[in-house]
Amino acid sequence: MLKKIIVGLLLTSSLFAQSGIKNFFKYSTAYASFSLNAPRYQDDRFAIVGGLSTGDLVVERTERELKPDFQTSFGLRKIGRFQYEAKRGVKSAGKGGVWYDGSEQNANESSTFGPVKGWEYLIKYSEGRQWGNDYVNQEYWLRYIGDWFIAKVGLTELGLEDIAYGQGDIRVHLTPEALGNKLHFSVGFKHRQHPVYGFDAMILDTTWYKGQWWAFAENAFGIDDNRWVDASMLDEDGNFIQGESELLEYRNGQWVPIEGAGPFWNEGGEYWGHDWLWRDELGGIFAYTDREYFVYHFPGMLEDYIGGVKKNIGYQSETSLVLGIDYYHYDENWWIHTWGNWLPYHYGHTKHAYHNAAYYGDHLDQKLEASEFQYKDPMWMSWNDYDVGAIFGVKIKDNLGVFTEGRYLFYWERPAYDVKFGLNYQFVGF
Q1: Number of domains the chain is built from
Q2: Are residues 64 and 153 in the same domain?
Q3: Which residue from 308, 113, 119, 100 is spatially nearest to 222, judged by alpha carbons?
């Protein structure tokens, strides 16, 4: 819903006047692209499917399905160009400029200030596959820079980093003339909505460990466990024969009892002559004992289940104090553009907002049991969220230059970053 609102704002906010339409979209750039890359090579897989009793292994070979990497992108952007940026567009493409293709990581897209006042916006969407991992990256924002304030609404999703949030940001800003109008300070509030972060399975859902785990597994996963018995362990009346099920090991020419709990049967290392097998929703057997299911299948099923619980809870909301600083300097020989935003105090509006996640972290740091945790009502909480970025370039000679740029975002203890270092040298005199 938030994405639709933002896109709608971008497309309709200037429709109050005919001239406003032209000005709103003037100097904007639209792009679309598709790229395809050969997949990373992987050898075929081999699996042992038989030979346990005979000693002669039966091997099955499975050819890997190698899917290519790809990226599909489209976007619409109107962001003031800083002096260190090369001009882009059809007219200059191949003549000193470059095309937009959606693969760029333009660090200054995350800066607080732009070089011009007025409306700026970004619609940026890409989906693809990288080393076998499918992802969706998208970013939408609309920003207005006035004489004394900044307002911004946006939506960001970074698929590979698993970070997603919507935001509304309003601040007052100050640009001291005594500092050459190069330094910008801002203070205000940022409202964010985000998925559930910072909570673990112990408190998001207690049913899986506060009752019989096998009953939970049947109800939560739609599977079934059925008892089986070993007929040789029953007497003529159908009663289990006790005391004759000790597990023995042939060692040093004699049979001796096996020490320890035993890896496959029941705790205590005993073969009881009965256990439970597990069937999937289609009736197929995928585990022949409780222990096999508990060790090899239950953890993965539980992880998927908790992921569904998180998704069903929905987006959480919080409002944060935000302090920002930006610095920009440019001349022909060197330039620097840096920015940073610090969010030190936050008010959580919903039960699973991060104020409770931070409180839960403190709870665990005090060595308290997860099951003892009690959610707090909406409240202010202190933790450090921040994002920083920098672009720096030096023109050493007319034909030699070095540069670096990058950005780092740390929200809800989830990092996302990209960094570039480079050297440009143009051969002359040939």
Answers
A1: 2
A2: yes
A3: 308
